[in-house]
Amino acid sequence: MSESLPAVRTFLDAFGRKDVDAALAVVDDAVTVTVHPLGVAGGGIADLRTVLTDIVTAFPDLRVTVAGILDTPPSVTAEFTVEGTQAADYVGVINQEKHLDVDQAWQFAVADGRITDVRAYWCQAQLYRRLAVKRFDQIAIV
After folding, report:
1. Full-prediction pTM beyond 0.70?
2. What average pLDDT does the chain have?
């Protein structure tokens, strides 16, 4: 086990508890953030806070289920599912009170016990399907 793993586990545990501040407590202030589905490239800690806060706000019954963590220094890759019922607008989709479960993979770099790089991946098309979006530019009313 590398020394990077505890920081990633702390981050994911806090995210699963919907505690954004605790998740960010193990993130370096100079973190580089890339969230491919949202078009965030070279972002910083404010972008990561926004992503986490938006998820926690939109899905108050949020569950983060970790399927696996691959520890391959210098990076750690976590595969998990984000699941909950939409209760607020999220990534441009109006609140439809739909259940969501989206598989995600996030890759982390850690130095001196602090997360210094985050790269988040998920299928945006799957997210939109789960939230009942027929087309990316038209919300389905069901």
Report:
1. yes
2. 89
